[in-house]
Structures are given as C-alpha cells and as structure tokens.
Write a structure and sequence with these properties.
alpha/beta; nine-stranded mixed sheet; 2,3-Dihydroxybiphenyl 1,2-Dioxygenase, domain 1; eight-stranded mixed sheet; homotetramer
C-alpha cells in the first residue's frame, strides 16, 4: 500500500467565468485589471495577466447569468494526468475526457462533491510574446502592464459550497491538496477550508454558502506585486465606479492583503498581495474557532455580511 | 485697512497629552511608535519622532484623566509672535505670557472658542543629536528609529468641539489658518473643518463632539513614510494588543492613509501617511455634504460610530 | 527698511520643454508618464499629471534642439506679482510683460543670472475636469491615471548653471527662495544649491555645468505617490526601451527617492517620491563638503559622470 | 528505470555562518536584521527571523575566519531522507550520519562537488513561541519583529564555486533541484546557476569564484515583506555604519529586489523581497549570455566588481 502523498497537480491553470454583460466585464478585466486578450472564440474571450505563466488564466464567456464555468488545473506530467483521471473516475466524480480547448490538449473533466465543474490537463501551448509586449527582461512572459490595477496573474479561487467538509475532503483525497487552515463551527464543521498544492498558503478556498445554494462561485483572486499595489487597485476601482464590497485590509487566513469588488457581470473579484508561503513538510492545519473568527479581519473589522451570502449565480435575485 | 492674509504661524510644534497611566502610555510611545525620550521633568516626559524638526513633539503628562494638556504652535519670527499675542488678547481669548517651558522661550497662552488650551512661541532650543543617534545623512535630525511603527514626526491634531464653525473661525481669524475642506450638515453647519497653515492639506482638524462635551480632544496623528508603513504599524498594534478602533483605510478629506488606535491612557492616536499638499494660492474650500459623507471612507466603509462620540476625557465613563 | 522676507511666490507652476522629436516626446509623457493632454496650439502641446493643481504643468514645444523653453511660477496674489516685477525690473533682469499664454493671464518675463527664461503670473484658469476623468473623490483634480508611471504632478526642476552662487542668490534675492541645502567646493563655491518657496525641501535645484555651458537645463522631476511607485516607474522605462541614466536610489539632499531617464527628445526627466518637508522657520542651510559628497548617493553608489556634464541643449553633440 | 523526478528535499532549513567577531556579528543579526536568539551552545548562537518556519535559520559560530559552516536542508519525510543519503553515499559525496544537533534529529552529512559542507535531516523540533512573542494571529510563528530591517526568514543562499557546472549538476542529480536560470560564458560554461526545489524561482545560487578559491561562501539572503522594506533596510544599514556593497536594485535573475552588505564578521548578507514564483511544470531554463549580462542589473547599473571576487573566507586578506 502506497502512503506517499499524491503530488500530481502542479498549479491552478485558469478559470472560466460566465457573465451576462460580456462587454462590460471584458472592459473591467482589460482596462481596470490591466489584463491582455490572447484569443476570442465563440462567446468566449481568453485573457492573461502580464505575469501569468500559462497562456491564459481567464476564459470569459457570455451566459445568461454570472457564475463559474469551470476551474482548470495543470498536472506535473502526462502520467500524473492519467493517474488522477483513473482515480477520480473510480470514485465516481468523473465526467470524461475532452479533446482540449484553446491552448491546451486533452483534458479530463469532473465535478467536486458540490458540483463545481473542474478539469485537469497536462499538454499546454506556451505563450508567444508578441513584439510590442516583449519585456525588458526575458524571464518575464510580458511587459509590466502599467494599466489599471496591473494584476500580475491569477492567484487563487474560492468556491461556495453547501458542504465544505465534503468538498475540501474531495480536493485532498482526489487531487492531493493539503489543508493549511480551516474555520470551524462549535460542532467542528468546516465553514471555510484553505487548501494548497503549491508553496502558497492556499491555491483554493471553499466557503460555506449560507444561502443554501449549491455549486456556486465565491470569487477569483488576481495578484499584484505588493500590498501598496492593492491600495492603488482600490483607487482604480473607486475612480471608475466599481462597487467595492470590502476595502483593502488583511485576511487572517494566509495573511494576504486584499480588496474585493464585483465585476460588472456580478462575479466577485479580489485583488491580493502578500501572504506567507508554506515550506514545512509537517505544517499543522491551523484551526480557527467561531470565537476567534469573531474578531474579524487581521486589523479588526469584519467583512460585510454579503461576503457570506453573495455568490454567483446570484440566487437572491433570481 | 490690511487685506494681506495673516502669515505668522509656521507650524504645529508640539502637543501635551494627559494620561492616567503614565508608564503604559510612555511604553506605547517609546516601544510601539518608536519615539525617543529627550527629557523628563515633574510628571512629564518629553518625546520626539526621529524626524521631528522641533526638539520634541509630545509632552506626556500624568493626570487624573486622559485628554489634551495644550497645543503649541511656533511663529515665523519674534515679531509674528508679538503681533499674534496682541491680536488674540484684543479679541478676548488671551490667558497671558509665560516664561517658557522645557526647550522653548516665552510663550503666549490662550484658548480657542471651545476652550482648548493653546500656546504660541518663537524662541526654541534646537535638538542636539546624541552620538548614538547620529544619522548617516546629516540633513535628518536623527537615525531612522527602526522600532515599532517608527513614526517620523507629529503630523496633525484633531480637536473635538461643541461648535465647529466658531472654532474653525477662531483659527482662521486669529491664527491665519486656511480652510481646505469642510463637512457640513444640510443646514450648512460644519461637522468637521480641516485647516492648514503649511502646504499640508491640514495641520488641524476640528470635529463636532456629538456627546455634547466641550473642549475635548479627538486625536493626534504621527506620520510614517509611506502607506505601506501604515500597514506595518497596524501589524505592530495587532501583535501587541493595542485596540484598533479603525483599521488602515484612506480618508476622504486630505486622502491620507490612516490607522486609529487608543493608547493605553485612552487618547486616540492616528498613524498616517500620504495625502496631498496644497500649492494653489486660490484653493477653493472643498465642501462635503451629508449625502457625500454617507459613502464612508475613500474605499467605502464607514468609520465606527465611536469616532464621532469618543474623545478624551471620556465623558461616558465619568 | 523692510526686513520681512519676500513671500510672493506660491509655487512652481509649469515648465516649457523643447524637443526635436515632438511625437516621440509626447508619447513618452502621455503613455509612459501617464500624463494627459489639455490643449494643443501651434507647435506646443500642454500636459498635466492627474494630481496637478494648475491647469497644466508641462508645455511641450517642438524645436530644433532639446532644452528649456521657460519656467513659470505663480505668485500668491496680483499684488505680489506687481511687487516682484517691479523689483526684478529695477535690478536689471527684466524682459517685460506679456498678455499671457494658454491658461494664464498677463505674466512678467525675465532671466536669472545664467540666462534661463523665467516667468511669473497670478491669474490662472482652473482645470475643468472632463466627465470621463472625474475622480471618485472631488478633492482631487482628476482620476488616478493608472497608466505607465502614473505621475501625480510636477515636483521640481533643476537648472544647469555656469555660476551656481550667482544664480542661487538671484532666486533668493529676487524671488524669495530659501537655501535649504548646498554642496560646495573646498573654496566654498556652490556646486549645487537646493532652494524652496514651499514646505518641500526644494522646488528648484541649480547645479554647476561642468561642460562650460550657460543657461542649460538639467532636469524636471515629476512626483509619484510613494517610493514603491518609483520602482514601478523604472519597470515601465526598462520595458519600453527608455534609457535609464541612474536607477532608483535615494538622494542625499532632500532624501528623495528617484529614477533618472532621458525622454526621447533628449531632456533628462526624474520620477521622484518621498523626501522631507521643512517646517522650522529657522532651518539652517545644510552644507555638504566635497569629502562628504564623495560617498555618493544615500545608499552609497555615485551618480554616473554624465549627471554632471549632460544637459540640454546637448553641447557635446552640436 | 525510474524517470520520475526526485522530490525529496522540502526546503532550505538553516545555514551555519562562521565569524571571527562573534559579538559584533550577533549584534548585527539581532539589532539590525531584527532576528531573535533561540539558543546558545558552545561557540554558537542559534537565531530565527520572526516568520521562519523552522526553529532557527541561522547558526552563528565563532571561528578564526568568516565563511560557511554548513547548509542544512529538510526532506519531505524520513523515507526521503534515507533515499537521498543512500544515493549520495553511492555517488561518493557522503561524509556520514550524525546524531543531530540542537533542534533536529539525525542528519546525513556530505559535500557538494566544490567541497561545501551540506546536511539533510527530517526530524525537527517545532518552535514553541514564548508568551511575550505570541503574535496577534496564530498562523504566524511569532510577532512581527518591528526592529531594524525586521527580516521575516531565510530566503536563499549563494555559494561561490570553482566549477559552477559541476556544482549545479550535483544539486540537480543528488538533491532534485531544478535549474530555473543560468548565466553562461561564450563557451557555454555556467558563471551562475539559479536552482530551486520550492516554487520560489531560486532557493540556491552558485556563482563562479573568479579569485580561484574553492568551497567559499558568497552570501545568505533574508527576506522582508515588500520592496519598500528593502529600502528601509538600506536606511538601517546606512544609519548604523554597515558597509553597503550594492544599494537597493532589482536582480535580473529572479527579479528580486535586494541590498547587499557585509556583516561585521565579513560575510556578505542580502536583504531581499519580491521575485517571481515558478508554477509551470515545464519551465524552460532561462539562459543569459555574456552580452545580455553586460547590461547590468534590471535597471541598468552593474554590481560592483567585488561581487565577483569577494567571498568568505576572504582569500585576498589571508
């Protein structure tokens, strides 16, 4: 019997977001986050931050309502892809193989315990930097955007779930994520789980959807280079009439600096910076009790209540 | 008739704060703000930030209850001092001349319309940097503190007042302050007035004391070098059990980045950075309506209600 | 006899720069510094930073060679303007009155001791923010640029001079500038003089032109909000092929963080942040000896030798 | 035959530095870097940054001359430790097993191709935070230091080597490091190799020792939270008379912001921030040619020549 941990998933590759306002949403990601368009196809536009290592990190797709299309992860190798697919299929979460999509080869699709669409693949097309975006230093994929919030890259995503325990267990057992931190109820049920496959303290968070919804999306976070740039991002949002749900502050879990907004299509977007990396192979999950969570954010103010109920699609407004 | 504006006050020089917990307060200013002690005398300790141009910016005095001792301003010249004293006396606000205090020569004492103790002087002893604090560059008064929040210097003060209009008029007419910004009620009564004598957008703020108190103190603000350092200050307060009344955010007026805490004696202290300078000689006072003020801080969250009622001495707890 | 100091000049208002490459220079200021165009007329384009309080801070004019057109300062009042004009005329530096230029009323023109063209005026048209640039907070003139280096405003200028002592004396005696810092030779001759009329530690610097030139231009500095933003500016220059003469570092005088580049027309441009303000009315000029200057910049590396010889027009290449 | 990559080393754990001036060196690490002492034993003091996940990251040992004692790495598991030890022994680099040292269990010692002392272990004692250092948020090991440069943790080390190719191959083949970037001569010989086992773009750099020395030490780098904090660190060094070999600037490789100093014992120390993470499983080594390296640092100034010759022990001064 093999007790070695699963180490097949290399990183979060891209996310597909659905939007009922494709033009406004596209303008948000291009002009206010400073992302670049690499491709358009059908009802979808593919975008990347200037520092994204994959070809793109966001597939923005027109749809009747906002929400998550799917989350894609890249495996370490073709072999790791096969291994994960077999295991997931065996456990009954599989949807099946695809021939790939723009920029990547065949992928295996499945859902997590709460029904979010997920996908893994290995073969990926590299980003060929066009001449006008060639950076001064060739170890970067592209020039510093110097536009809007100038986000570097996709950092992490947060799913809303009707059963956080089940969902976080899924990511641990099927995909090899480790639980870095968790918030629990007095009964020991998870209200939020923070999970990672890289040295980042989390690549994925799963929060309890108090609205009773299932398979909804909470937020996607794009990274900037320093806490100071989060403040600049907030200025960009303020000056351009974007709804700021929570002003810059520091999260307790992961200690990342953040600002939360709703993009025009309705999806919650975070711009974040900082936070710690986890190097210890025997990191012990940090558990936050309801008592401890009452203190609010790192510097003492709670997130607005909408943070625990609003997600996309927006059930309340259906 | 002389229409030339009064230009006699050079800058805010120091503030005397009263504390019922002298040791804890002293520890706060020394260890957590990173200020240095230059002198002790009677029940008072005199402190300075590493970048303060006056000999000291804070006189911390033991007292039965927290609050303001007095605010001292320095004039441009001995002549300007005489001129202001004469004018203030003529208008009935004068208390009289003193022989000076530690570090400065004779001063003229008076009160503003709401009864806060004020003082002006010109003659001042220069700070002689002790050898162990000599900076690498001699155009700075001392080494970078590199301790706690490492505040540079006193930046501004905020008085609580039962009648903001009367008080702000006093500072304009008697001391030559200019009104850079104001918040007003629907009836046009000032709820906060921001006033300046330097190029800073405010050296002094006066806020309406909703508790009905008179002559109370709202807060003193110490400056750090950048918005990022305000975040570090918040970390220092978080880690050392200091009550954070309002986490880092950006003020609408002046657009300064701030964090508000209560020092152990009970006085509200702000650590701030940034904000704009005013150079235009015909700057028009910016007026904020109740409607506009409802939006809260720059990035959209209101200050806690205590910000409008808590001051020192703390009337509620008497 | 009036011993009161002259306090007639409120601030540096704008600078006219000449460029033999008008399109490339315009692109630099618009796309890489992030400034906005407010007007075009004849061979000139008028630009402003998003935080500039005057209508514009840069008049960019096509010319055979790079260099300074003129420097304009604004007086505190119409009366102050008359007073300065009379005094300058009396001392033989005057050129005469104009009817004004785009955005400002009648001005008095003159030259300093080294022949740089200067101008003072009071009447000025205010900036009317167009709808698409209206900021979230109305105490700012415009939205945060969020483009390129996103410079806030013109900060200071530096003139090259064949006789720094004579020139700095001119600014002190005729315009009321104060000498905050100076670098001198062993014989006590000024090699650089830093002068201010506002609380900034300098609004103007004058450096010795080792090339033997007269009336040349050294650089203009545009401000960003924090030291961190100077680093971002350097990234913008690096990624866009702009020659960086001196990478980000900290000046000894004024302790401003800087980066120096040549705009495509050849003029040296600085992006700066930080530095201290001077509040003490009896600030004593800080004098740097050749020995002390040998240490280089604050953190120990010298500026390149071109910093002491290159100016515009570029004599060497004529 | 197993083509799976070696993934046995979790992270760089600690470094032992030798110093002929133990008191001055200790003072540097404690007061100027802001590290804390966790233990003293014999001629050694064990120190940690406030964010270090291992019990300590620096063992400072009194010795006749400065230099490297050893570098310690932690494996993912006891099994990984055995596997690495076997493999290294088989290849002839082994020195043998120890019973452990302060804070960790049995370790396997060996040398790299150039003779640097290395060690791997798995069993490690956890840091028990003393009450007075308990942080506000329990997912951090300790309070933010708020003293001196306030370094967070050990970030990476740089070895000097007589044969970079051989040494970097050793780390790849024996320890599973990957080559993220390299600088080469026109003949294709490595002059610097950057290697990583975590998502950081390098945990280890190996540079060619132009002095002809063997097994020498180049530098150890401690991390701060943002580029801005590197500037503050430079201020701390400037104000306290520490020799700054290279002022803050940005590295081409890894794009980390840095400042280099010599600690009083003579060892080169870097304070760094930023830099990118590598997530792509098929990252292609970035190769810098001599032509490209001529451009100097990211923003265009070369490192001083001592950077390529000075190491510890200091051969030149023997």
């Amino acid at each position: 019997m093999n007790h070695e941990p699963i180490r097949d998933i290399a990183h979060l590759a891209h996310i597909e977001l659905l939007t009922p306002k494709p033009n406004e949403s596209l303008n948000f990601f291009k002009e206010l986050l400073g992302m670049g368009v690499v491709h358009s196809e059908g009802q979808s536009v593919f975008l990347r931050g200037w520092g994204d290592q994959p070809l793109y990190s966001l597939k923005l797709t027109e749809a009747k309502q906002a929400g998550l299309g799917h989350v894609a992860m890249r495996t370490f190798s073709p072999y790791a892809l096969e291994e994960r697919a077999l295991d997931i299929e065996k456990n009954g979460f599989g949807l099946g193989w695809t021939d790939g999509d723009y920029g990547h080869g065949r992928s295996y699709q499945f859902t997590d315990a709460d029904g979010h669409n997920l996908e893994i693949y290995y073969e990926a097309e590299k980003y060929i930097t066009p001449d006008h975006l060639k950076p001064g230093l060739k170890n970067m994929p592209a020039k510093y955007a110097a536009k809007g919030a100038s986000v570097t890259q996709l950092d992490h995503i947060n799913l809303f779930s009707s059963d956080v325990d089940a969902d976080s267990l899924f990511f641990r057992n099927q995909l090899g994520f480790k639980l870095s931190e968790q918030a629990i109820t007095d009964d020991g049920k998870q209200t939020t789980a923070w999970l990672h496959v890289t040295n980042k303290s989390y690549d994925l968070a799963i929060s309890h959807d108090k609205s009773g919804g299932k398979g909804r999306f909470h937020h996607a976070a794009f990274k900037v280079e320093s806490p100071e740039m989060v403040l600049r991002a907030a200025d960009v949002f303020l000056d351009n009439g974007i709804f700021i749900e929570a002003p810059p502050n520091k999260h307790v879990a992961g200690q990342t600096m953040f600002v939360y907004v709703y993009e025009p299509g309705g999806n919650r977007i975070e711009v974040c910076a900082g936070g710690f990396l986890i190097f210890s192979p025997d990191w012990e999950t940090v558990t936050w009790t309801p008592e401890e969570r009452k203190k609010g954010l790192a510097w003492g103010t709670p997130l607005p209540s909408t943070f625990h109920t609003y997600g996309t699609p927006d059930i309340a407004n259906r």
